Amino acid sequence: MGQTETNGRLCPFVHKPYNDCHFVKMKSQDIALTTFYCYKNFEICGIYRNGSNGSNDGNDGNGNRGKDYAQVFTERLNQINKKLIIGLVLFVFLTAMLVSNAFATASIYGQSVDFQDMIDQRTFSADYYGPTESEGGLTGYWPGFSILWDISYDQTAQLWDYEYTLTGNKAISHFILEVSSPSSANDIINPLVKKGSGDWTSISIYGPQLWTPGTGNSNPGMPASGLYGIKFDTGANLVSYSFQTVNDPVWGNFYSKDGKTGGNNIYAYNNALGITGFNSNDKLDFIVRPDGGNSPPMVPEPVSSILFFSGGAVLAVRRYTKKHKENSKMFSNLPNKNIKEKEGLR
After folding, report:
1. 174-178 and 254-261: which strand pairing?
2. What is the DSSP letter of 129?
3. With contact defined as beta carbons under 8 Å apart, do 318 and 12 qualify?
4. pLDDT higher for 80 or 6?
5. Which of 28-32, 98-102, 121-125, 227-231 is predicted least confidently?
6. 76 or 234: whose pLDDT is higher?
7. Who's near 231: CB < 8 A, 6+ residues apart?
8. For residue 40, what are the CA distances in angstroms to 20, 27, 37, 163?
9. What is the rounded average pLDDT of the residues 60-72?
């Protein structure tokens, strides 16, 4: 017994018991309670926890009986659940921050485009390049230049409809639109062109191939890495190009040019084309172009996914808490002598 006490497994009240300690009364119904509480589990004993005043009714002097096992279990469960929920919230917050930072620094080049970006435009932002209300996103020299796209999905034909409209104070000479490598000319269906307010007419395309500044000596200002894509070799001050394809829209690049003005080459391309590896996480640096795949962009944002699953985890914890509270109520309805039965339910 002395060794047991030294190990902290014997209730300290054994040496100086209260009148209502289980082993003092030692009636037949107290044997199981003495075995369970006084020897090994005294820390959850109501008498030990509340410091009984030694009265035979087990009151603490304020009319409150010592807490039974079910109450202790419920309190501990609530404490654990509070810590668990707080820990889960902190974990979700930190994970969301890490994932957000990871995606914030990753390039969006080649990634699927959200539906709200299927219609948009890019223009020069500097005053001498174009209108002051321009949205930017372009590199080069082309006063008044802008590029607008309008992309939709034809459910009947199960094809993507792509339309690009280019505007400049000088007529567009040609327009090169990036496509995924490798691609085939057969991927581009029914290419059309419309100049000004004229009608849509058929047009031939060139490529797909790698276009560089030295290709035909006709791409001044293009970054040395070049651009793999298709080329529309006709234009006007206001010109639209359209085609259909199974390839879904992603973030990519373009290049367009005209001749010269005051000795300056007239050309424009999106900012990311001039960045090594097209490494930008700003969609303003790209335009939308066809990919090599054939699936609509319906992937949820990563942080939203994390919050969705974490919400499910919180609900699971709450259900777990509710279940064990119900079990604790069952404990309170059982006589104290049924210790082994209680332990079986826990």
Report:
1. antiparallel
2. T
3. no
4. 80
5. 98-102
6. 234
7. 174, 175, 176, 177, 205, 206, 207, 211
8. 18, 19, 6, 79
9. 46
Sheet holding 238-245, edge to edge: 119-123, 146-154, 159-167, 238-245, 189-195, 201-202
What three-state secondary structure class fits 139? strand
Polymer length of the chain: 346
H or E element in which residue 321 lies: helix 302-332
d(CA 99, CA 162): 32
Match 């290049």 to its residue by tokens.
255
The Cα 231–Cα 211 span in angstroms is: 9
Secondary structure class of 178 (helix, strand, coil): strand
In eight-state DSSP terms, residue 16 is S
pLDDT value at residue 53:
41
Whether the CB-CB separation of 164 and 239 falls below 8 Å is answered with no
Strands (E), the chain: 119-123, 138-141, 146-154, 159-167, 174-178, 189-195, 201-202, 205-211, 227-232, 238-245, 249-252, 254-261, 264-270, 287-290
Q: What is the reported pLDDT for 323?
A: 58
Contacts of 55 (CB under 8 A, 6+ apart): 19, 20, 61
Dist. CA 301–CA 320, nearest whole Å: 29
Terminal Cα distance for the chain, rounded: 29
Which tens digit of pLDDT belongs to each residue from 257-308?
998 888 889 999 999 999 999 999 999 999 999 996 655 544 445 545 555 5
Alpha-carbon distance 267 to 260, whole Å?
A: 9
Residue 15: pLDDT band by 50, 70, 90 thresholds?
confident
Average pLDDT over residues 82-101: 75
Query: Residues 111-148: pLDDT tens digits?
Result: 999 989 999 999 875 544 443 333 578 999 888 899 99
* Nearest of 255, 291, 286 to residue 122 by alpha carbon: 286
